[in-house]
Amino acid sequence: MEYKAFQDIQLSRLGMGNMRLPTDGEGFSAPINYEKAHEIIDYGMAHGITYYDTAYVYHGGDSERCLGAALKKYPRDSFYVATKFNYGANPDYKAVFAEQLARLGMDRIDFYLIHAVMDGSIDNYLNCGCIDYFLEQQKAGRIKYLGFSSHASPENLRRFADHHQWDFAQLQLNYFDWNYSTSKEEYQILTDRNIPVVVMEPVRGGRLSSLTPGAEALLKEAHPDWSMASWALRFVRSLPNVQVILSGMSTLDQIVDNCRTFSDPEPLSDRDMDLLMKACDLFHNQLRVPCTACRYCTPDCPMEINIPEFLKVYNDYKVDGMMALNRADAVVSEGKPADCIGCGSCTSHCPQGIAVPEIMPLLAEALSHRPPRP
User: Fold this and answer.
1) Which of 15, 127, 257, 320 has the fewest CB atoms within 10 Å around its CB?
2) pLDDT tens per residue across span 126-181
3) What is the pLDDT of residues 341-350, one digit of tens each?
4) How large is the greatest C-alpha to C-alpha distance in the chain, in angstroms?
5) Closest CA to 40 of 64, 20, 62, 59
6) What are the helix and strand counts (H, E) for the chain?
7) What is the per-residue pLDDT across 192-241, written as a single tens digit (0 to 9) for each?
């Protein structure tokens, strides 16, 4: 296992996220399978993982209990626990903090975070008094290091980062978002302020563990023994200000592969990095429908389907997964994807030649199986 100095301690570069623990059944309310979850955590402890991340809301609160029970048999100074306060779940930060200590069965929390700072929640966090309270808990020794996780715009990330000198911050960071979102700018904002970065979603919720065939072939030719997830982890590991890289491991196979990656000191070479960026572009282009929203397809659609907007939902679904399908609810359209009769009028008018009658049934099928909102 690779380690990196953080203030006066050493942290494993790989951290275990406890948001996607194995469950008995499907869905958000399915109970954690403690036996399988503890097997994964035990493997992590045996192979040098020292950083374990959870939160007040993960698995309906049971993630903290499960993690605390798993770590109870290990010396308290052999691991570091991170958990989070979420204003939206319960604004009573004093009660939440006390409950978290009880759930974990611990008298202190090593890494404590303000959870999911977003453009819509930043003022709640800045004005409710929680930051001052957690700074007091830090002085009292019940919190060792205080930070925050962010899904905010760069503008609001700057605003929150400038509140005081935070010990660390957590960002969604991966090579796809580095190229196609604002991750690079967010990383630089924290780096300019000397705030170490803990990475979440380095494999983009598992999406980067399986690429399109052309993108995978390009990477497999260079390193046949590296998994797609390994490429993603190695990318974020190469960034100098990255401290810990979290992976939400829900199977033994995943943690075995990740531990193997972080036991291999070989960095990405310049050639590897070039290949990865080419694979990322190829993945992006192969994955998405190349709709330009010219709307040539809509006037003659007999079912009056807002085709460009639904194609946008389809693209988001292919990149972001099932939860992106909820964006279909906001599309203003007389007809829905399930109403498509496959007449082909849209394709005959499309400058890109998009086979809309093939895509609409796929989107309709996905929409019929989308998960309930959490």
Assistant:
1) 127
2) 999 999 999 999 999 999 999 999 999 999 999 999 999 999 999 999 999 999 88
3) 999 999 988 8
4) 69
5) 20
6) 15, 10
7) 999 999 999 998 877 788 888 889 999 999 999 999 999 999 999 999 99
Is 29 in contact with 3 (CB distance < 8 Å)?
A: no
Instruction: Please tell us whether the domain made up of 3-280 is placed in CATH 3.30.1640.10.
Output: no
Under 8 Å between Cβ of 271 and 38: no
Angle CA(364)–CA(279)–CA(250) in degrees, nearest 5?
Answer: 65
Query: Is the Cα torsion angle 136, 140, 142, 148 positive or negative in sign?
Result: positive
Nearest to 138 by CA among 173, 172, 168, 158: 168
Element (H, E) at 26: none
Q: Tokens 């964006």: give the residue.
A: 327
Domain boundaries, the chain: 3-280, 307-368
List the Cα angle 186/189/191 in 5-degree steps. 110
- DSSP, res 330: G
The Cα–Cα gap between 371 and 366 comes to: 10
Distance of CA 272 to the CA centre of its chain: 24
Distance from C-alpha of 307 to C-alpha of 296, rounded to nearest angstrom: 10
Please state whether the predicted TM-score (pTM) of the whole model is above 0.85: no
| Side chain identity at residue 180, one-letter code | Y
Q: Which residue intervals of the chain are DSSP H helices?
A: 34-46, 62-71, 93-104, 122-127, 130-139, 154-161, 175-180, 183-192, 213-222, 228-237, 252-261, 270-287, 307-320, 345-349, 356-368
User: In sequence order, what are the residues at sequence separation of 6 or more whose Cβ sits closer than 8 angstroms to the Cβ of residue 351?
Assistant: 292, 294, 296
SS3 state at 27: coil
